[in-house]
Design goal:
Low-confidence stretches: 295-364
Shape: elongated
Number of strands: 8
Strand content: 5-15%
Order of helices and strands: HHEHEHHEHEEEHHEHHHHHEHH
Distance between the termini: 25 Å
Number of helices: 15
Strand order of the largest sheet: 7-1-6-3-2-8
Mean pLDDT: 80
Helix content: 40-55%
């Protein structure tokens, strides 16, 4: 028996594997998404989203990708998994994902192909957008110059293509290698860590999605989780996952403070200082609502197989598109892959009142 099954759950609530079913709309993630949507819609050119390890950058990038209307955007996500990529490699992958057939090895011819494709996209009434995850891995100045060159493709009032970089704070140092590109950053947003209430609601949300009928952690336990996780979603998942396992082994119905302290000690986590916890509480954000035209039915799952030697591509798919085995065959053609979505049962529309659902998950 899996530890989550012991608690009557249908899904593993605290897995760190990306799954859009568990996307939590915190105030700062909602605000970030709304601002990035604005950049995408207005074709501002370049935006960057920063955040420390485990704060939800990749989750937000995938949420953004799947929120973009297919009839308005030609959008893809490039995930950089190797710092040794070259400018030529990057340019060819961008061209391929925007629909350029047989990208030419000659750079000048490739740029001509890419320009023609961008004109086609614009004539279709759509916008070209590339999301770049793990962008701190782009350390070569020639790569920054390539992005700057692409951003120079424009008509009065709008760019032909826009980019949104997601990465660690050190990404800003890389951008400073090319000051003209750095000056083109139209929007910058930095994700912080959760304050206590967000951590509590985050845990409740993931339990609800997994099928919980009640809150499985006491309030004191959540306070200790906040102390040791410092409000970082990935660490919250790690602590809660281990705590459920410990709870099953001890046949506990509810996880208390002692279990969390034991788990944190075993994971080698250090408690946050009182000063840091106060700082987190003072950084509460008032969320900016998402424009209605970008609100789409929530995806029930998204799986991206990480193939390729230097990076991978997640290509936007229509939410209702059937899954085919052909998606995985791209590995034979190039060192990139496209996202594929398994068929899942509909679990309702996206207009559920989250607050009511969270309130219902109170401790018995």
């Amino acid at each position: 028996m899996q530890h989550y099954e012991y608690y009557g759950l249908k899904l593993d609530p605290f897995s760190n594997t990306p799954d859009n079913r568990f996307y939590y709309e915190s105030a700062q993630h909602t605000t970030a998404l709304a601002k990035l949507m604005y950049v995408a819609q207005s074709m501002k050119g370049l935006a960057i989203l920063l955040g420390d390890v485990g704060t939800g950058k990749t989750t937000l990038a995938r949420k953004l990708l799947m929120s973009l209307p297919d009839d308005k955007f030609e959008a893809s996500m490039l995930v950089i998994i190797h710092s040794g990529i070259t400018a030529d490699w990057l340019l060819k992958k961008i061209a391929a994902q925007l629909g350029v057939e047989d990208p030419n090895d000659d750079k000048m011819k490739l740029l001509s192909q890419l320009y023609e494709r961008l004109v086609e996209i614009q004539e279709e009434g759509r916008s070209a957008l590339i999301l770049v995850d793990e962008a701190q891995m782009l350390k070569d100045r020639s790569i920054m110059e390539e992005f700057r060159g692409l951003l120079n493709l424009e008509v009065p009032g709008r760019k032909f293509i826009s980019f949104i970089f997601f990465g660690l704070p050190e990404m800003e140092e890389n951008l400073r290698q090319d000051e003209p590109l750095n000056q083109r950053v139209a929007l910058r947003y930095e994700l912080g860590c959760f304050h206590f209430k967000s951590t509590e609601n985050y845990i409740k949300h993931r339990l609800r999605v997994a099928g919980a009928k009640k809150m499985l952690f006491t309030r004191e336990a959540v306070q200790v989780i906040q102390t040791y996780s410092k409000g970082i979603p990935r660490l919250i998942n790690n602590i809660c996952d281990n705590a459920l396992l410990e709870g099953m082994l001890k046949k506990l119905d509810v996880i208390g403070r002692e279990i969390i302290e034991n788990v944190a000690r075993e994971l080698g986590l250090r408690a946050a200082s009182k000063e840091l916890l106060k700082q987190l509480e003072s950084q509460k954000v008032t969320p900016i609502p998402l424009p209605e035209e970008f609100v789409r039915p929530k995806l029930q799952a998204e799986h991206i197989d990480e193939l390729g030697d230097m990076g991978l591509i997640a290509k936007q798919r229509n939410d209702s598109a059937p899954i085919t085995q052909g998606a995985v065959n791209l590995r034979e053609e190039s060192n990139v892959i496209v996202a594929k979505k398994p068929e899942v049962k509909d679990q309702g529309s996206g207009d559920t009142d989250i607050d009511k659902l969270l309130d219902a998950l109170e401790i018995d």
